[in-house]
Amino acid sequence: MSLVSQDGNLKVSFTLNGRATTVQTTSTRVVSDLLRDDMNMKGTRVSCGRTVCGACSVLVDGFPRAACSTFTFELEGRDVQTIEGVEGSDGSLDPVQTAFARKSAFQCGFCTSGMILLAKSLLAAHPDPDRETIIAWISSNICRCTGYELIIEAVQDAAKAIKAEAGA
Amino acid sequence: MSEQKPLRVVGQPIERADAHAKVTGRARYTVDLAKPGMLHAKVLRSPHAHARVVSIDTTRADTMPGVRAVATGPKLAEWVAMPVYGYFIKDQPILAMDRVRYEGDMVAAVAADTEAQANDALAAIRVVYEELPALPGIDAALDEEAPELFPEPPRGVVPPYGEGASAKLWPRKNVCYAFRYTTGEADVFDGCDHVFEDEFRFSRMHHMHLEPFVCLAEWLEGDEIEVATSCQNPFPLRKEIARIFRVPENRISVKVPFVGGGFGAKNNCKTEPLALVLSKMTGRPVRFCMTMEEAFLTNTQHAAVLKLKTGVMADGTLVARQSHILLDSGAYSDASPLVAEKAGYRITGPYRYKHVDSVCECVLTTTTPSGPYRGFGGTQATWASESQIDMIARRLGIDPMEMRLKNLVALHEPWMPGESGVDSDMAEGLALVAEAIGYGAHKKAEPGWTRGHGLAIGFKDGGGVNKPAQARVKVSTGGDIHLMCGTVEIGQGARTALSQVVAEILGAPLKRVEYLPLDTRYTPFDQGTNASSAITVMGQAVQRAAVSVRDQVLQMAAEHLGTDVAALELEDWTIRHGNEAHPLAPIIMHVYGGTGFEFTGDGFHKQANDHHAPLETKSVFWEIGWAGVDLSVDRETGQVKIHALAVSGDAGRAIHRLICRGQDEGAALMGLGQAMFEQMIYDGSRLINGEALMYRVPLAEDLPEQFTSILQEQEHGPGPFGAKGMGEGTMLPVPPAIANAIQDAVGVRITDLPLTPERVLAAIIAAES
Ligand code: FES
Ligand code: FES
């Protein structure tokens, strides 16, 4: 459990993009505000603010969560990944990012952070997903621009690339 | 000319210029910006559809914690020269003056240290209203008993029109604008074998761009203005700000970073004037970021009623069409006059007629102001027109595809008298989508279901009217290319495509081109990012700027090398002269001295004014979308299952194929949403689904079983390398193609959108009884 500090704030400890992190925050602070406003990590986008669009998706213990509707204290002891933690420490792109880039699986890019994290979680659960599985997962996020086909194809490409990498 | 050489950048499978920024989350949007000392603005909105504002008491709010300024309409006069804005008619107040005209109209605003404090203060503002009758829709607003929404009509302008077109301001009660286009003689109706009259209704969508309406505005010392905003047309916005605050345009900097979607909504003033007022009041930068719920209360598509009267010969030859279109403009005129112009003009679609008489009126109602929306009146027009063409074909016992083929305006044939020639072979496109869905050869349906096919063609003039565009290309001594132009990267891929054009002409790889940040102080002028104009209008300006630089470089090199320009080629900042290669940097230093030089080329494009053209300029290009649908209808429930949706657009020449594909597919899916379920639902004047949970937009699971997009490159476009604009075309034909397929399947015609199971079932039951 998170600890209430002397000034009435919460102290919350979790792993953020592989790094042990402790934050002082209030009980009502949501994760998207924590990331964007307190930690200046703007890659997590906020659109609807109410668990519908998925633009704000981050991975908590490997699964997508709407950062706009998750309280910071819910992160206590968890493993959190944001878009900033997807590329390698040397700046190399993750296979999902590469596939999105190559396939132009974005337009305005506002859904892209969330879609990429969603796709990573999907591929961790289903390394060889069929079209239906991809559609079922992707349907939890809204993309107003692309019509989804190129996103689906990017996820398929990423799955192939990850498999090829593992086989090599 | 490089146009003849094999293309090395244009049309090549390269990554978008913004790919890295967007897949790493590093792309910066207005919503991400902050300044030290920044305040947050929030607004109080009217709970009534129509009311007189009797009094506003802000005394409690004024002194609440964190509150730095409270603004109300009556107080604005102190801070603002002209507190109203609008496109043709300046009727929308920054804050309500004496009246509110829709639920959500802005009444008061607070700037505070945090958004939460601003919201708390809003709750402490007391407003006394005296309710007036609501006008929730077109019928109510036109009713004889209806009150005037604007008892004293605000002033506006009618732009010059060419032959056959005209318009009137405030022609009758609650109608702010009426556009008319007419050509040929009405008496040709007398010679028609049949005259059909039908009425159609078009529902209204919200853009639901994911990045909110947001700006960060600062009124600086000495009356300088700096505003970063999520906006599609920074230069017209600058002009509005200059007029509203009476500040010279050269003291205003409008900056536009990446924009997270707009689809038309982000044209003209949204958050900016109010944020500037609050900044002026406080001397601090002010961020005004609306929620998604507020976006629903800010701008929408136009609902419409469209009456068509079409005269036709027994063999299916179209002769004459008269139409009367009523657009629900919402509470303020916004872009309604422009949308009316387009809906009225486009109502005949891609077919040849001897006589056209089309009237389109903008009806003010007590609902969210309607404005520009992908398709811009063309969506409404295509829905009615392509539905009626199909209905007429079936009434005459002619195959709807045959009927279309018989009447299509041919390639290069002027669409209307005085217009430019159509720049796609439309029969070719129709054949492609028909083939993709196996048109005419119905597959077996499941028991209880019947299968049907439908086709439609969306047709609109593209590239906008009166859009001058300027661009500048600069290349430094080392060959680094700067591209400066006012096209906003809103997701459509303009940065990439325009940079590709420059790279191609300068023989450079795409990575050499930097698309510089847009700032109205330094970026050459552009009218706005809309009307699918980027590649055809700005593209030509960019092309000229790049050609100018290339010619200067070759000229300098030719003089230096003592040879003829024609013998030289430019390739990755190296001059090729036969088998010799001369890197440019040393030559430049030799010619201009050790500090080097920068080559600068300017380009300009504007479609020439032409009074014979109905809209004063010939259409820059024609944006066409073809759609074919294969579906089944469940006769028991009215449910519609789409087996295949095939759409096609003609890019003329695809500068970037995947970007074009994405535009076509995104537009088609928006059309699918419009057709099947997506709509703003009103209970009277109250929007009841104005937030993400209740407002249904297409998800991946809404994709048809088979979704095909066919990218054509017919190479007749006016843009660089034969390119045409795209991004709107394939949205237009989807709703009528689906309605046409439903009729093909179950013999009933739905004339209202969306095509819900309830509507389909009701029509089936009505037809059976
Ligand atoms: S912003 Fe969190 S789900 Fe939409
Ligand atoms: S790319 Fe714009 S919302 Fe997906």
UniProtKB/TrEMBL annotation, chain A:
Keyword Metal-binding tagged: yes
EC number assigned by the record: 1.1.7.1
One function term, GO molecular function aspect: metal ion binding
Coiled coil stretches, renumbered: none
Entry keyword annotation includes Cell division: no
Keywords tagged on the record: 2Fe-2S, Iron, Iron-sulfur, Metal-binding, Oxidoreductase
EC category: oxidoreductase
Gene3D superfamilies per the UniProt record, alphabetical: 3.10.20.30, [2Fe-2S]-binding domain
Pfam families noted in UniProt: Fer2_2
SUPFAM superfamilies to which the protein is assigned, alphabetical: 2Fe-2S ferredoxin-like, CO dehydrogenase ISP C-domain like
Protein name in UniProt: 4-hydroxybenzoyl-CoA reductase subunit gamma
Annotated organism of origin: Pseudooceanicola algae
Automatic annotation (TrEMBL), chain B:
E.C. numbers: 1.1.7.1
One Pfam family it belongs to: Ald_Xan_dh_C
GO molecular function: 4-hydroxybenzoyl-CoA reductase activity; iron ion binding
Keyword list, A-Z: Oxidoreductase
Oxidoreductase is among the record's keywords: yes
Stretches assigned to coiled coil: none
Domain Aldehyde oxidase/xanthine dehydrogenase a/b hammerhead span(s) in chain numbering: 24-133
InterPro entries registered for this protein in UniProt: Ald_Oxase/Xan_DH_a/b, Ald_Oxase/Xan_DH_a/b_sf, Ald_Oxase/xanthine_DH-like, AldOxase/xan_DH_MoCoBD1, AldOxase/xan_DH_MoCoBD2, AldOxase/xan_DH_Mopterin-bd_sf
PANTHER family: XANTHINE DEHYDROGENASE, XANTHINE DEHYDROGENASE SUBUNIT D-RELATED
Protein name: 4-hydroxybenzoyl-CoA reductase subunit alpha
Species: Pseudooceanicola algae
Gene: hcrA
